[in-house]
Recover the amino acids of this structure.
């Protein structure tokens, strides 16, 4: 594991880390633009695009909400447009388009009917469906990663030094060194899947790199995929991933039926090493004390029956529409192999016992 300590040290000491740009998606998109333009200027062929003609390449940042729009003109005067969406710290999300909820990349396909290709560049390989509907040319976005295809192209480009582009060359050296070191950590996470990640001081170093949430979310997504297959009711929403204040979270929710207690939703949330049972009110009213009793009663039951071997974290009393009760300590980088079954069993219990929650609340 000493090798990983050296890798993490290198990442923390990288100049781009010290000036707090290396965790920014816009930074990596900009560096990708410089890389493509450097390859164009030095006649370096590559296979990032399905059409590898690099004649008159133009790269535009932040065009119609697209991270990077690449236009190429072939020797036969054909125009090829590639939509590039960079995802370094966050995953793909859904958005509104003409009063319809669609995936982010589907919206870009709608707004760029002339595009011939779409690419998602990510840190970890995307697990979401990248299929596209109702587009003449794009049927699916291609997925490449920063630490594989992009790093390979950087290494290829750095074999061609050009004094007229020496400043760009030097930037690519620093960026390439960062991605090379990051690849070692990414590969270890992908190799271990849900097993323990036994790297000393991992969480603290990822915090310094401002990437803790990225690696947490990768692990949470592996758990989410298994839980979603194990839940036995369509009343339980598929897991939702997110990030608040640099900490990733996984959220499964169930909607209450009509009730007298202002209860709207309930379920299980996992964030910052804690698994929580929560109840959300429609609005903050006078039923808070009754909800607190239900949270403690049901939360304690969940811990004793599904997470007995896990430590029970201390609960902090806070009021609001959303309130939770800690039911288990679960570190994101620990051995998570049994967690999907524990979470699915808990959710299946909760959806089958909504009436019990309400009945208990009525007794208090």
């Amino acid at each position: 594991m000493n090798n990983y300590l050296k890798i993490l040290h290198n990442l923390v000491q990288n100049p781009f880390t010290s000036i707090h740009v290396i965790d920014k998606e816009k930074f990596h998109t900009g560096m990708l633009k410089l890389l493509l333009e450097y390859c164009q200027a030095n006649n370096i062929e590559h296979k990032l695009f399905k059409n590898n003609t690099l004649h008159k390449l133009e790269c535009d940042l932040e065009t119609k909400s697209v991270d990077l729009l690449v236009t190429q003109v072939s020797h036969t005067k054909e125009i090829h447009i590639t939509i590039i969406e960079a995802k370094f710290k966050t995953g793909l999300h859904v958005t509104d388009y003409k009063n319809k909820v669609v995936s982010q990349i589907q919206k870009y396909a709608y707004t760029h009917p002339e595009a011939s290709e779409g690419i998602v560049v990510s840190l970890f390989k995307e697990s979401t469906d990248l299929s596209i509907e109702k587009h003449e040319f794009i049927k699916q976005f291609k997925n490449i990663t920063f630490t594989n295809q992009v790093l390979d192209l950087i290494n290829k480009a750095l074999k061609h030094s050009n004094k007229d582009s020496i400043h760009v060359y030097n930037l690519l050296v620093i960026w390439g060194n960062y991605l090379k070191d990051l690849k070692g950590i990414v590969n270890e996470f992908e190799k271990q899947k849900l097993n323990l990640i036994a790297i000393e001081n991992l969480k603290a170093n990822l915090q310094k790199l401002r990437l803790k949430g990225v690696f947490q979310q990768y692990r949470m997504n592996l758990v989410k995929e298994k839980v979603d297959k194990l839940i036995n009711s369509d009343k339980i929403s598929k897991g939702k991933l997110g990030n608040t204040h640099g900490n990733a979270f996984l959220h499964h929710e169930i909607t209450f039926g009509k009730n007298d207690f202002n209860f709207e939703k309930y379920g299980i949330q996992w964030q910052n090493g804690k698994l929580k049972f929560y109840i959300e009110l429609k609005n903050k009213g006078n039923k808070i004390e009754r909800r607190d009793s239900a949270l403690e009663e049901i939360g304690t039951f969940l811990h004793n029956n599904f997470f007995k071997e896990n430590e029970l974290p201390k609960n902090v009393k806070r009021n609001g529409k959303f309130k939770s009760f800690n039911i288990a300590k679960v570190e994101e980088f620990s051995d998570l192999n049994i967690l999907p079954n524990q979470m699915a069993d808990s959710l299946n219990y909760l959806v089958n016992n909504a009436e019990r929650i309400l009945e208990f609340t009525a007794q208090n």
About this structure: The chain has eleven helices and twelve strands.
